[in-house]
Amino acid sequence: MDHPAPIVLRYSFKVTYASILSNIGRRGARDEEYVLEPARSDIVRPYGIPAPTVNHHTARSAVRQKIHALASRSETQARDIWDLDHLLRSTTADPRPLSRDVRAALPEALERAMSLSYDVFKAQVVPCLSYEDQTTYGTQDAWDRMRELVVQRLEEFRS
Predict the structure, then answer these.
(1) Which helix (H) or strand (E) holds 56?
(2) Which candidate, 153, 22, 28, places its Cα nearest to that of 95?
(3) Closest CA to 84 of 96, 94, 72
(4) pTM assigned to the model
(5) Is 57 exposed, middle or buried (CB count within 10 Å of its CB: 0-12, 13-18, 19+)?
(6) What is the distance between the alpha carbons of residues 125 and 37, in angstroms, rounded to a whole number?
(7) How many Cα atoms within 13 Å fall on the side-chain side of residue 123?
(8) Backbone dihedral angles phi then psi of residue 53, each to the nearest 5 degrees
(9) What is the mean pLDDT of residues 63-76?
(10) Sign, CA torsion 107/111/112/113
(11) 3-state SS, residue 123
């Protein structure tokens, strides 16, 4: 079976000192956690550029945001469960203590994580995966394991 050649996307961005200071000031006010560090070299190597130093959310902060997103989107997105599963498996991130907003979102996030079907995951996430990742992560069994881990950890965060 022939597969289309992968599409390589190149991103161009401009960062100014003023925009960095502006974002740092704004972010600090929201009690979110950020880290300033070089991007991983394996990510930028294909582009032939040195690793830029970037300000990004910590894994703890990203988990909090994903819990809130899972609970509050007008249409539930399987990518939120995919992202939570990845964050929870690949880091030691514990989002606690939770803000009042995130704590209040946990019951809805749990309900949505438990009820999101494999068909939704298959339609929303699987097409975005590489062919190799589709064979590993695009199955019903893999989806069930992802949801199980996310539900288990969300229940832990409630206590």
Answers:
(1) strand 53-57
(2) 153
(3) 94
(4) 0.75
(5) middle
(6) 29
(7) 7
(8) -90, 125
(9) 95
(10) positive
(11) helix
Best CA proximity match to 153, nearest among 94, 101, 75, 82: 94
Q: Are 47 and 87 in contact (CB under 8 A)?
A: no
Alpha carbon of residue 68 to chain centroid: 12
User: Are residues 67 and 105 in contact, defined by beta-carbon separation less than 8 angstroms?
Assistant: yes
Phi/psi for 115 (5° steps) reads -100, -10
Q: How far is CA 46 from CA 13, 53, 74, 109, 128, in A?
A: 17, 17, 37, 37, 19
Task: Look at residues 95, 102, 80, 96 and name the one whose alpha carbon lies nearest to residue 147.
Answer: 80
Q: How far apart are CA 19 and CA 25, in angstroms?
A: 10
Q: What pLDDT score does 31 carry?
A: 54
Residue spans of alpha helices (H) in 1-159 = 17-29, 41-44, 59-72, 78-90, 100-115, 118-124, 131-137, 140-158
Q: What pLDDT, on the 0 to 100 scale, is given for residue 53?
A: 92
Both tokens assigned to 72: 């509050």
Match 């972010």 to its residue by tokens.
27
